[in-house]
Description:
The complex is a heterodimer of chains A (281) and B (270).
Chain A: H1 2-34, H2 42-49, E1 51-56, E2 64-65, E3 71-72, H3 74-86, E4 89-94, H4 100-105, E5 111-117, H5 120-123, E6 127-128, E7 133-135, E8 137-142, H6 143-146, H7 152-155, E9 161-165, H8 169-177, E10 182-186, H9 189-197, E11 203-207, H10 210-217, E12 222-223, E13 233-239, H11 244-260, H12 262-272, H13 277-280
Chain B: H1 17-44, H2 54-57, E1 58-61, E2 64-67, H3 69-99, H4 104-118, H5 122-137, H6 141-166, H7 170-178, H8 183-213, H9 225-236, H10 239-267
Antiparallel strand pairs in B: 1-2
Amino acid sequence: MKLVRLATLTCLSCLLALIIGCSQQPVQQKAGEKAAPAKTSQLDTILKRGVIKVGFDTFKPWAMKNKNGEYIGFEIDVAKKLAEDMGVQVEFVPTKWSGIIPALLTGKFDIIIGGMSITPQRNLKVNFSIPYEFSGMSVVASKKLAGGRTMASEFNNPATTVAVRLGTTAAEVTKNFLPKAKILFFDEESQTIQELLNERVHAVVASNPLPMNLAKEYPDQLFLPFKEDFTREPISFAVKKGDPDFLNWLNNWVLYTSSKGWLQNRYEYWFYTNEWENQIQ
Amino acid sequence: MPIDQIVKPPSPSRIPASVLIDTAKYIAVMAAVAILLSIGTQRLGYNWQWYRIPQYLGQFTDEGFRWGLLMQGLGVTFQITSISLLLMLMIGLGTALMRMTNSWAARGVARCYMEIIRNTPLLIQIFFIYFVLAPILGVSGFWSAIIALSLFEGAYASEIFRAGITSINKGQWEAAKSLGMSSAPMYRHIILPQAIRRVLPPLTSQAVSLIKDSALVSTVAILDLTQQGRMIDAETFLTFEIWFTVAAIYLVITLILSGIVRILEQRFSI
């Protein structure tokens, strides 16, 4: 009797899985129909709501908290300016970087403004605007463990451990750049830095200016093994697929704001000056 | 006598109506879940790509069969949980016995350990051991994860053991004492064999908890099942497919464990 029950239950579960599996076929087609340009643009939704919801994660100096607990940084300035030009309020939705694209796809916010670089893999899931800035990857290494190394080949061996933040392009770049090294993936930038200072990893790969600032902050422990950034990555706004109107508006906003020199000015301020340091310490 | 006049007794193998009704209810609930799921995903406009998942479980290459990334992660999860399980039992039993001794120091230490561990989050403990203690002691990431897990689960296991030991009838203790047994053989031959049988079911649920809690070690860059899932997710954005698959793998593992324990219980039934 028990066996019969077990068998029946197994059959039913398999049937259920089959039903779900089959029900997904038409879903895809319907989603395809939905993506027709006839539907209302996210742009109208935002204007009606009067608020643009922006997804981001904290990366110094792209976005960080100041002493009063408010968000400041390059991306925050960009988001505020964009909302102002659109004539709406801005609402910030801090999201873990590793889950930021799924959060956009499930409608937790309208747009990602968080220093996201364009990658083909990401582009399969979201649409990117034209780039509004470029950032470079760099390496910061521990003097004690990796002192005197100045060549990529010296880091590219199984004895070398590198810490990166999960879901960032640093993770992908490191896989391509140092394929033989052992890579540890963490959720937060602060954890990778802690690992480096604890002398448990040889190096951290991250977007500049973080490696540069770290080497300045801890000159006795850390150093920059390479003179140049080894990538130059285009940074763009990411929005859901199937919305040409919103994308068009964003592209032209980037062109317009660049022509005024505003973007360059903000970039210089956040990346090449320390005037904002006293706001966070 | 013509055949149609024979009245057959009802066959004993006929399924009673109540079972049929129950089955119908079950199917209805499951169908409702399936419909909700499909409506939800339709509304999201999520693009399902299940066909990209099998390569992460395993694939046939020219060199033969190769386990996929998720299965490699499962191997690490097995290593961590099996070692932690042994340590959990040792720590749990040790703490339980310490709490029942006459020495106030041993009782105090055991009590302190248990209260601190049970009243702080596991995630914080893992971070503390990995980022603070491990560099000082020079322990690798893998072992700091195991230490954190076994300390955490051991605190709960100790209470289970203590409950089992104190539930043994007073007559058993007295009988052992009257035979002139000292406490070590008394525990070994009389008390613990009976207590272990009683605590097997709650210990099983603790072991299942251990397997599920081991997912938290992914936060300190251990390449276990969850961390592999997160890494694949970060690269391919197959969020729903990956997490459903990972959850299913955990479910299968814990069900197998519960099944084994059930067989054991029937073997050693009291």
